[in-house]
Every structure is written in C-alpha cells, then in structure tokens.
Amino acid sequence: MRKQIIRRVSNPAQFIEKLFHWASQQTIFTILEGQQMEMPGHQFDCVIGIGKRSSLNFENRVDFDQVDHYHQQTKDWLFSYISYDVKNSIENLTSDNSDGLHFPHLTLIQPQKVLCLKNDMLFFHYLDQDVDSIADDLNAILLQIVSETPLPQFEFQSRMPRKMYLENASHLMQHIQRGDIYEINFCQEYYAENVTFNCLQAYKRLRELSKAPFSVFAKHDSHYIISASPERYLSKTETDLISQPIKGTAKRDSDLEKDEALKIMLQNDPKERAENIMIVDLVRNDLSKIAQKSSVCVDELCEIYSFEQVHQMISTLRCSVDKNIHLSDILKASFPMGSMTGAPKYKTMQLAEKYENTKRGLYSGSVGYITPEFNFDFNVIIRSLLYNADTRYLSYMVGSALTAQSDIEKEYEECELKGKAMKQIFGQS
C-alpha cells in the first residue's frame, strides 16, 4: 500500500532543478516532464519514479497475458518502456536490422517511490515502509547543489548517407505510386561510438533548447533515455482516451513576422494536411477497435502548436472505453502509433524494415506512467537521445512522412531539422 503526503514548495522552477539532480543520482529512475505546457490531458508538471519494488521485462517477444496479470496484480503506479518492436508480438513481423543499443522490447516497473509536482504542490506517493523517509528525501532534495558540467564535443555519423536515403526514399515513392501504401514514416539513425558524457547535463541542455511537453529523462540498468518529445501517444483518464498524432513540420524563425508566416504556411499546406488527415483516419480506425460505440471523435484537426525548434501540426482524437478494458487490449489495438508507421499500418511496417537499416528499438515506441486507478499518459519517443552506458553507444533517429506529394530532398531536410537540437548540444551544427 502507498500513502500520499503533500508538501508545498516555495520556488517550483528552482526546486525542479534540485529534484532532477537528486533523482538522477538514483540507480533506477524515470522523470516524465510536461514543462508546464498546457496540452490537453496533462495532469502534472512532472512525475518521477524512483527505484524498483518489482518489474516485468521482455527482452524479445511479449506475452500480453503476463502483462495484464502483472498490471492487475500490482494495482499500483507503474512506469513503462514500450519498444517499437513490440509490433512483432502484435503482428507477424520481424526486426533484423542493426541494433547498437539493445533496449528491451517492453519493461514495466513498479517503483519504490513516486513524486509528482503540480505548480507548487509536491505529492509523495510512498510505499508504507518508505513513508518515514519522506522528510529525509525532501531535505536531501533541498540541499542539492545544482552544478553545470560541460558536455564533450563530437560529431554524429549517419547510418544512412544522403545518397542512400534518397535512393531508398525513391523506392518507397514507387510503392506509393503503385498504391501499395499511401504514406510511410521513413526513419534513419545518427550515432556516436565510445562516448562518455553527463547524461543529466545533456537532458538539461536538450530541454532548454526544445521545451517539449512529453520529455523524459530515465535510467534503467545501463540504458538512458534523454527525450524532448512533443508528441503524445495515448492518455487515459477514467474511461476517456486521448490520442494526439503529429504529422506536419515547419522550421521556426527568429523574426516574428516571418515565423508567423511559416506557421500560416504550414496550416494551409495541402501536402502537410493530407499527411495529418491520413493518420487521423488510421488512428480513428485503431481506436474504434476498443471504443464504445459511436464515441470516437476528433476534437482538433490539423491544429498548429509551436515549439522552440519547430511548428507542428497536431490533431486530437478522443473516445470512451469500457471501464474493465485491459492494458493489452489498448496496446494491441493502437500500437505502434500511426504517426510513426504510415498507412496502411501493416504494409508500411514491412517496408520500413526493408528500406531502413537500423532497428528502431525504443525510438518510435513510448514511455509513460500508469496510476493505481489505471489512468495513464504515454508519449512517443521522438527527438530523443538513447544511450547504452555499458557499450558507450549513443544514438538518435529522425524520420519524415512520404506521400504521393513528397519531394524527397525536402523530406531529407526535414530529418536534418528534427535532429538539430540533438547535434547542437554536443557542439555539432
């Protein structure tokens, strides 16, 4: 059982920096941060899980019966890491490309300690046997000295050089022209080997550059996630499900008038709107598999949200589900998220495996939390650095959607734009 203790903090912006320093010193931690951006369904400014009371881990194929049993048995806070390759346990698919990171396919962690911050209110959700440590933990957080550590400078290498990208994208365009698919999210990897750096400092720098509403800083065993994700996969509040796929990207400009013009251009771009609407239709179909009759609706269609690096076109879909629905039902109906596959989903996943040369792993997957009441919030792992500290392998992936209207040179440039912040924090322009 857990107890909830609430404390007020005097300076939330300063406190959160101390909180992150304290959490990052723990052996296992997950920090999910909303950066106080007003996105629909946001419950907290940040949610943190510390330690591990129990866990369920699948290195390869996922047994969804075990997932449901574990979830129902714990009836507690859980933090979840869902690799894109969970698709292989939902559909008859494989992932045989290069993998330098070796993240598990799916992990559920029941933490020892949970801390949630909303404005100036700090909520401790501690197991009964740990409640006595709340005062000591709060004191330790307040005594943290926030320091800055310089990050090393190095260059990322491309797993798919520009010429190869354009050739493979051309092949995919032929599949679109033949009617095999309508849209595909085509991804590529940038990586660095034998690198060591301060992961907290990298996260702080990335969050400063990107200010994303679904950010993650997490460590489990040797694996680190440093994410400035702008995208929600799914959130659940009681019987209400929300999905917010992103499709459509435009760069920002420091000149306010030019920036506003870029935003309007994105809003009215027929190619970008077509991308978004195709994925909205796919997500509507996915949700209809688990939704209560006639409950699937579109709250926002092709709305523009502005972030530090880019403008994004986001749609918001909603449905109602049965109160007794299982976690596995939701995953099998909706995962992977349509914004990271394309349409139709099965064929695009097959073609992505053929023309991409990196196993996506956690990229295109999701990280999120589940409450004891079975409310949850899951992001999409994009705009993210993934790091294996044992092998010292650092990676990020970027992608863009190919449709019949795509200019593959511009799609390559979009990938470069999406990777800008990850390169920038290590001194690469």
Describe the structure.
- With 429 residues, the chain is α+β, with helices and mostly antiparallel strands.
- It has one domain: 4-Layer Sandwich (Anthranilate synthase), CATH 3.60.120.
- The strands form two sheets. Strands 1, 2, 3, 7, 8, 9, 10, 11, 12, 18, 21 and 22 form a twelve-stranded antiparallel sheet that branches. Strands 4, 5, 6, 13, 14, 15, 16, 17, 19 and 20 form a ten-stranded antiparallel sheet that branches.
Label the CATH architecture.
4-Layer Sandwich
β-strand amount? 25-35%
Integer tally of domains: 1
CATH class call: Alpha Beta
**What ranges have pLDDT less than 50 throughout 5 or more consecutive residues?**
none
Structural class: alpha+beta
| Count of beta strands | 22
Give the helix level as a range of percent: 25-40%
Mean residue pLDDT: 95
Taking the sheet with the most strands, its summary is: 12 strands, antiparallel
Number of helices: 12
